[in-house]
Design brief:
By secondary structure, the chain is mainly beta. Helix content is 10%, strand content 44%. The protein contains six helices and 29 strands. The longest helix has 7 residues, at 28-34. It is globular and about 60 Å long.
Length: 376
């Protein structure tokens, strides 16, 4: 099992960074393609990424959607003695939930399930939990227990324990989801785990940061309490949030070969580790401009031409953030090469893992800012 590690620097005031390794595992799409089930899966559980970011659902029911391309997850433990779970660390939601032994859905059968009866520190909250997905739902109940993340033990953390889960979750590599957005987004007024880390003085700085490795299953890491200079080069661009619910910022424009192809005059974007792709209302403009062709809703390019594809540049807060073809194309010769740009309804853009793999992403609650620096 991967273990968290702590990096401490000897300075005037001791500063400790708490690191949690992330694994880039197989995505649901890859698993289904290997089993020859992807074409059957797609129409049954269509991808509806923008449901997750409906402000009307910001309080009460937390809305999410299936994402067949999510790859990054890490290990946490819950209870006394600890029970281990693999979770997706999601800056686009605020609740922590995992499967429970009371879950009878097929989606729970191949995941670790929490047994409250085996934890001496578990307390039942007595309230039900319902998280709606684009293609189904998770229902369960709430409880309190000790949750250890990246070497940090958070006592009396509220957690969701599933009793039913949508069928598509059986293909998700992770067992559950740990939300890292703002408290107002949390269902049942649950306090997010990072807020408890702050209130319990477990971190020296009210920030966390992500490094997502592109190539291997190892190397990706989530850091609590500060910034790790080993994972970025150059300076950090600090971008003030335009809305303190998600990690939402203003994008000035998107260009290809110097031509504005999207977001002309500015648009709103959410930096989201819980979304794998880049989603936006004008992503098809980008796909067309880079020479991708539409294949049943997937935009494809020739796998042999990736190195020759044009860069896509996001202009944010007076700086440029460029993604090369090698960064925005995924797939293989066997299953085809897809771009990482997907058209989404509404006005919001989602800067998911395709973007974050190129830029070390820092989330500062102290300053209500997102920091971006070139990933090493």
């Amino acid at each position: 099992m991967q273990r968290a590690f702590v990096l401490c620097a000897v300075v005037a005031l001791s500063e400790c960074l708490f690191h949690l390794p992330l694994e880039k595992g197989k995505t649901a799409r890859e698993i289904l393609e290997e089993q020859g089930l992807w074409e059957e899966y797609r129409p049954k559980y269509p991808y509806n990424p923008m449901v997750k970011f409906d402000d009307r659902l910001a309080v009460g029911i937390e809305s999410m959607t299936n994402d067949a391309d999510l790859a990054y997850s890490g290990i946490i433990s819950i209870g006394t003695p600890p029970q281990s779970f693999r979770v997706i660390f999601d800056t686009g939601s605020s609740n922590l939930w995992i499967p429970s032994i009371y879950c009878s859905s097929i989606a729970c059968n191949n995941h670790n399930k929490f047994n409250p009866g085996n934890s001496s520190t578990f307390r039942n909250n007595g309230h039900a939990l319902s998280i709606q997905y684009g293609t189904g739902s998770m229902t369960g109940f709430l409880g309190y227990d000790t949750v250890t993340v990246g070497g940090l033990a958070v006592k009396n953390q509220i957690i969701g324990l599933s009793q039913t889960e949508a069928d598509f979750l059986q293909y998700m590599h992770a067992d559950g989801i740990l939300g890292l957005a703002y408290p107002r987004l949390a269902e049942s007024n649950a306090t997010p785990i990072f807020d408890n880390m702050i209130s319990e003085n477990l971190v020296n700085q009210d920030m966390f940061s992500f490094y997502l490795s592109s190539d291997s299953q190892q190397g990706s890491v989530l850091t609590f309490g500060g910034v790790d200079p080993n994972h970025y080069s150059g300076s950090i661009t600090w971008i003030p949030l335009s809305h303190e619910l998600y990690w939402q910022i203003t994008v000035d424009s998107v260009t290809v070969n110097g031509e504005v192809v999207a977001c002309n005059g500015g648009c709103q974007a959410i930096v989201d580790t819980g979304t794998s792709l880049i989603i936006g209302p004008q992503c098809n403009n980008i796909n067309n401009k880079v020479g991708a062709t539409n294949n049943n809703g997937d935009y494809m390019v020739n796998c042999n031409s990736i190195a020759q594809l044009p860069d896509v540049t996001f202009h944010i807060h007076g700086e440029t953030f460029t993604i090369p073809g090698t960064g925005y194309v995924r797939g293989s010769e066997a299953n085809g090469c897809h771009t990482g740009f997907v058209n989404g309804g509404g006005n919001l853009w989602i800067l998911g893992d395709v973007f974050i793999r190129q830029y070390y992403a820092i989330f500062s609650r102290a300053q209500n800012m997102v920091g971006l620096a070139k990933a090493r």
